[in-house]
Amino acid sequence: MTKIPNNVIKPPPGYEYVQQRSVPLIQPKPIEDNTQNRIAILERKLDKILDELRVLKKQQKYKPKISNKAKKIWMSDILEHVCDYFSVTPTDINSARRHAELVRVRSVYINLCHELTTASQPAIGRMCGNRDHTTVIHHIKLKRYKSNCWDIRTNKGLELWSDFSELESKLKAEAQPDNE
Q: How many Å apart are CA 50 and CA 150, to the nearest integer?
């Protein structure tokens, strides 16, 4: 038994003094041979499973689910869907005309491109009839602040929001997995 210094209180019965702290005298039970055998068996099985997983990965049979992959939407797909939905041609969207109906369609196209792609504002402007990036910013702000053609207090504004939501859900549903 370890000698207890004079300035330390004696430990309670059933405990012994070890390195300035009291620990129980209870010894841990030795692991039975049966338990050690089970541990060894389970470790071997785990090693086999891990080996098989490595082999499958090397053979490229292990592929993540397609639904986990990012889906990419292209601006040309958005242009096609917008033109079909509003019965206009890509030339109308790219033209310099500023008729109210064309401006609404352009605004939907620009906002869909902004929200569904990673394209920059200058790139969106180039795809929309070689327009400046500030035009793209203007249309994004119109939608954000619900003003002008996006005004929810008017019937046309509500229709535009409805059309935008419908096109957005269609495009997301038809998106192709990104293989990059």
A: 56
Which parts of 95-154 fold into alpha helices (H)? Answer: 100-116, 121-127, 133-144
CA atoms within 13 Å, Cβ hemisphere of 146? 9
pTM, entire model: 0.61
Strands 176-177 and 71-72, how do they pair? antiparallel
pLDDT 10s digits, 5-50: 666 667 677 666 565 555 555 555 665 667 878 888 888 898 888 8
- Separation CA 121–CA 114 (nearest Å): 8
Which H helix or E strand runs over 36?
A: helix 33-58
Query: Distance between CA atoms of 34 and 42, rounded to whole angstroms?
Result: 12
Q: Of 79, 102, 77, 107, which Cα lies nearest the Cα of 92?
A: 102
Strand partners, 23: 16
